[in-house]
Task: structure prediction
Amino acid sequence: MPTTFVKGDLFEDTKDVPSPRAFAFAADCSGAMDKGIAVAFKKRWPAFAEAYRARAEAGKMQLGDVFMWRDGDVVVYALGIQHGEKKAKVSTLARALETMATRAEGDGVTRITLPRIGAGKGGIDPARVKRVLVETGVVSPVALVVFEQFVRRAPAP
Result:
């Protein structure tokens, strides 16, 4: 399915998406969730953050791995693309995306929502990230929707 790039609020603009609602983000294999979009995931789903931290601390999260967590109709995929202060690599991102897409199909997920990837401490070239996302979408049965620009939803009157 083609990868779609949109503007908006990753969490608010997906509330009406059919179940399961799936999200993914680029994660630090050390288990740290104290910067960037990881903080928003940690605040929204603290049980996910705790499970991810435990897996990482046990040494079970390696570069290119994908950690999946499910709570009711929400699925979260943490893509292990960097470790500590080491710079992320496009090849690691590509491997994690491929693993995620294969796993998602088995999990009954048809659509995954992602934030802009590699823009934080990972520092991957945005054009290369976009190319990998498009290439993954072409061969994946799972739709990827990338919120490449955050736009806060206006509060209801």
About this structure: The chain has four helices and six strands.
